[in-house]
Design brief:
Blueprint (H helix, E strand, L loop, with lengths): L8 H9 L6 H18 L3 H4 L7 E4 L6 H12 L3 E5 L14 H22 L1 H16 L22 H11 L7 E7 L17 H15 L4 E7 H16 L2 H15 L1 E5 L14 H17 L2 E4 L2 E4 L4 E6 L11 H5 L3 E4 L5 H9 L5 H10 L3 E5 L1 H17 L6 H21 L2 E5 L1 H13 L1 H7 L1
Parallel strand pairs: 1-8, 1-9, 2-5, 5-8, 10-11
Antiparallel strand pairs: 3-4, 6-7
Length: about 450
């Protein structure tokens, strides 16, 4: 995660290039949008409220990197971020999730971020308190006489020599393997005690609120666990950090940060498009979802358990394959709220070669790491990589185009036999050649009916 001030568009693109091949236009669009979030914060107050985010819609076939861009962006930004599948939402009054839950999920992401930051800031004091609690478990009060005759009334007893010796051993890690019984509070969740029935919330979410409320009625129920001293220090430090943080302050800051910096990624938005020649049945509900989304994107106030939250400055990034529909099939009001449209390119054979070789966590590196656990050193010839890339491209051309996901299927087919026998092979080096790849893939590509089921 990079400091926002130094988080330039070029840095965003460079970071995305480490994991995603091609799609320069989409990377530039999201990089500029993220930088504009920071730029807006530097603008004086009267003008700042007038600057609305420029929402983005990404159009391209499946498996070309739309979702991966969102996933990597979430790790980079440090801003509240949520990715949702739009197809699971339905119009208000139908069975399914209400679109307002998107914003509630977003503020929950903000709460987790803010709470983690605040707990890190009190980590040192939390560790000190946890250390004292562990020492109390190892040497209960009164074990060697609670007070000395030199102690004055009203003052805490002086540290005993035994306790200080235990402290030295504890810090040196010499007591880590000893087991102790600890009492841990059920921290639960939420901004504060009390029950919050949210107007318009789906019944499942209201039941979740009731469960949280009854959990809090337990008054911080404690659970006893027997753990190693090393683990006890971590568990108790986490509990103390939670106690040291003002949860009301966490909620307020999370709402503020979500309003100003929140990002929502709406995946599969083409699934809620109505068809021009079909205006009945499920299309009514699809268009209803669009109309329910519209107030969120335009700017409205959503009730959350942390307080009301305005969506005016939340950035929305939508994506869809649009195989069976077009962007113009969205209702005009929603189209107008996504002024930036980016088309992602279909992947070619040379793109597949780069995908297999270049990313930091490429598929070839993943499979090599898996088989290394069995003592097998797996390497691939350049010709073998080209053969697998060509097989994936041909399968996408003649069958359904599923983009880079086809590489998973091809690699599984190529390495299936080796993966099965790796446990019995022992320590050895195995090199995958182009001939090895063709022997296992070409026969399937020639039989289209068989390829349709296997590749």
């Amino acid at each position: 995660m990079v400091d926002a001030q130094n988080f330039t568009p070029k840095m965003v693109v460079d970071e995305l290039d480490r994991y995603i091949i091609g799609q320069a236009k989409a990377k530039r669009a999201v990089a500029i949008a993220m930088r504009n979030r920071w730029r807006r914060q530097q603008v004086p107050e009267p003008m700042r409220d007038e600057i609305s985010p420029k929402n983005i819609i990404m159009v391209g076939p499946t498996g070309v990197g739309k979702t991966e861009i969102a996933r990597r962006l979430a790790k980079l930004t440090g801003a509240p971020f949520v990715k949702v599948e739009v197809s699971k939402f339905t119009e208000v009054g139908f069975v399914g999730r209400d679109v307002d839950s998107i914003i509630r999920d977003l503020v929950e992401a903000g709460v987790q971020l803010v709470r983690a930051e605040m707990e890190r800031s009190v980590r040192h004091e939390a560790k000190t308190r946890a250390e004292e609690r562990v020492l109390d478990l190892l040497l209960p009060q009164g074990a060697e006489g609670a007070r000395s005759f030199t102690d004055r009334p009203g003052e805490p007893p002086k540290p005993s020599g035994t306790r200080e010796k235990l402290r030295e051993l504890l810090r040196a890690g010499k007591l880590d393997d000893r087991e102790v019984e600890v009492e841990l509070e059920d921290l639960g969740g939420g901004a504060s005690g009390g029950i919050h029935i949210l107007p318009g919330a789906h019944v499942g979410e209201q039941l979740g609120q009731l469960q949280n409320f009854f959990r809090q009625l337990g008054g911080g129920r404690k659970q006893k666990r027997t753990v190693r001293v090393e683990d006890a220090r971590e568990l108790l430090a986490a509990e103390e950090a939670h106690k040291l943080v003002d949860q009301e302050k966490v909620g307020r800051e999370a709402v503020r940060r979500t309003e100003q910096l929140g990002v929502v990624f709406l995946d599969e938005i083409d699934k809620i498009c109505g068809r021009e020649n079909q205006r009945g049945g499920p299309d009514i509900s699809r268009e209803g979802v669009q109309r329910d989304l519209l107030p969120l994107v335009e700017g409205s106030t959503v009730t959350t358990k942390y307080g009301p939250l305005k969506t005016d400055h939340i950035l929305f990034i939508a994506a869809g394959a649009f195989h069976m529909a077009r962007v113009s099939d969205l209702i005009p009001e929603l189209q107008g709220r996504f002024p930036i449209r980016v088309e992602l390119d279909s992947l070619k054979a040379e793109d597949f070669v780069r995908i297999l070789n270049e990313p930091d966590n490429s598929l070839l590196k993943q499979y090599a790491a898996l088989l290394h656990a069995e003592g097998v050193a797996l390497t691939f010839d350049d010709e073998a990589v080209s053969a697998m890339a060509d097989a994936a491209w041909r399968a996408n051309t003649h069958l359904e185009n599923i983009g880079a996901r086809r590489l998973h299927t091809v690699l599984e087919r190529v390495l299936e036999e080796l993966s099965f026998e790796a446990s019995e092979l022992g320590t050895r080096e195995i090199r995958i050649t182009a001939q090895y790849v063709r022997e296992r893939v070409d026969v399937l590509l020639e039989d289209k009916d068989l390829a349709r089921h296997i590749l």
